[in-house]
Amino acid sequence: MKNIILLLILSSSLFAGGYKIPETSLNSVALGAATVAHASGADAAYYNPANMVFMKNEAVMEANLIYIGLSDVNYKSDTADIDSKKENFFVPSLHYVSGDVNGARFGLSIVSPAGLSKRWEDAPAIYSAEEFTLKTVEINPTVALAIGDKVAVALGLRAIYSDGVVKSTSPIASRDMSGDSIDFGYNLALSYKPTAELDLALTYRSKVDLSIEGDAALFYRDMTNAFGGGAGAAYSSTSSASVSAPVPALLNVAVAYTLPSDTTLEFVYERNFWHSYGELDFNYGGGVNAVTNIVFGAPIAKNWKDTDAFRFGVTQKLDKLTLMGGLVIDESPVPNSTMGFELPDSDSVSVSFGTKYQINESLNIGLAALYSMREDRAVSNSSLNGEFSNSNVLIISSAIEYKF
After folding, report:
1. In sequence order, what are the beta bridge partners of 154?
2. 377 part of a folded domain
């Protein structure tokens, strides 16, 4: 259960608006995930599996290790000036595209599509978000087929495993939750290559409803009827717990054009359907006291909005060297009215660059980096009246690509 909350709320503080992680490969880090229409490496299995049909008839695999560094976010108000903990993570990923198999191409990606962590040590942040930690693994097999010489389609299955922790502590209440889940969705892709230089693509990843189940330890001290400085009635509960929330649907429309200089320019319009995240509703087992259940079981309004992201990438192929760069403009789906310490999200601009070197016909190595600069955000709602700042992110990717 903590998993779900963690996933839903925490991961968005990392890379993109909401709680998704778009960068799961060397090319995606180097190009700011503008690797859809012209995807031509092993990571095409994830970003545009339809393009597998147009790749050279050979198997290709990429093993990738991504470092993610989160700055210590500052929150300042009239009564507080606190910082979250700095976070450092190493996230592996794997992408594979098969050779031709009776006219079809098969792909497999193993990635972390969302998560990471946000931890606070000081009040008032610990009252609601002492820790939000999420780990996710997505296994995404895909298959692609050609329709004539210029069109290809693909279908994939999304299987997402999530595991996480949610903790909060206040003078009168605390919550310590953990849980996990396996949930499923699908993805579709369409590629059209009207000329050798022009690539057009449309991809869609379905919504996945996370149905987390786990355990929760809850404590609440009811001060309603406390008199003369009394401590009030205390309730401690341990029970099963469950919660459901969506990983929203995602639509990409992309176009890429390759110039005679072997320079490829790509633009991706991304639509994230965050409106499906209307509320976060926790459910507990019979062991939870009725008063405690009212405190912790009431649905939490989110009311997130659909958002747009604009991704620009440029790739320059030389002899054995490939140079890449990217720019991302991304919106936050979190409205002012429901923003909290668990996800101090804001609009962002990201810049990226990377390089790949061909050692021989079978082996490539690469290195890439992305830096996301998030806007300072003033928040005034029923629980917060202050400003978040310094919520920037650094991503570094190293990869080995092998063709066989």
Report:
1. 144, 189
2. yes
pLDDT > 60? residue 226: no
82: in domain: yes
Whether the pLDDT of residue 258 is over 90: the answer is yes
Token pair 């061909």: residue: 358
Three-state DSSP class for residue 287:
coil
338-393 residue pLDDT tens: 888 887 889 999 999 999 999 999 999 999 999 999 999 999 998 899 999 998 99
Structure tokens at 248: 């929203």
Task: Tell whether 217 is covered by a domain.
Answer: no
Instruction: Report the C-alpha gap between 35 and 254 in whole angstroms.
Output: 9
Give the number of other CB atoms < 10 A from CB of residue 269. Answer: 14
Contact by Cβ (8 Å): 58, 403:
yes
**Number of domains comprising the chain:** 1
Q: Which CATH number do you get for residue 370?
A: 2.40.160.60
Q: In whole angstroms, what is the distance from residue 209 CA to residue 243 CA?
A: 10
- 129 in a structural domain: yes
How do 233-247 and 208-222 pair as beta strands? Answer: antiparallel
DSSP structure class, residue 101: B
Range of the domain at 201: 2-207+243-272+307-403
Tell me the DSSP string of 332-366.
----GGG--TT-----EEEEEEEEEEESSSSEEEE
What lies within 8 Å, CB to CB, of 149 at 6+ separation is none
**Cβ atoms within 10 Å of 371's Cβ, excluding its own:** 15
Can you tell me the distance from the alpha carbon of 146 to that of 156, in angstroms, rounded to the nearest whole number? Answer: 15
For 147, the token pair is: 């329709």
pLDDT tens-place string over residues 195-220 = 999 999 999 999 988 787 888 888 88
What's the whole-number mean pLDDT along residues 164-182?
Answer: 85
CA-to-CA separations, 377 to 256, 309, 346, 380, in angstroms, rounded: 34, 19, 6, 10
Backbone angles phi, psi at 346, to 5 degrees: -160, 170
In the numeric block, the tokens 């101090």 are attached to 344
Cβ-based neighbour number of residue 169 at 10 Å: 15
The residues, any chain, with a CB within 8 Å of residue 270's CB and separated by 6 or more, are 250, 251, 252, 308, 309, 310, 311
One-letter identity of residue 375:
E
- CB 269 within 8 Å of CB 306: no
Copy the structure tokens of residue 68.
Answer: 């993610």
In the block, residue with structure tokens 């990635």: 111
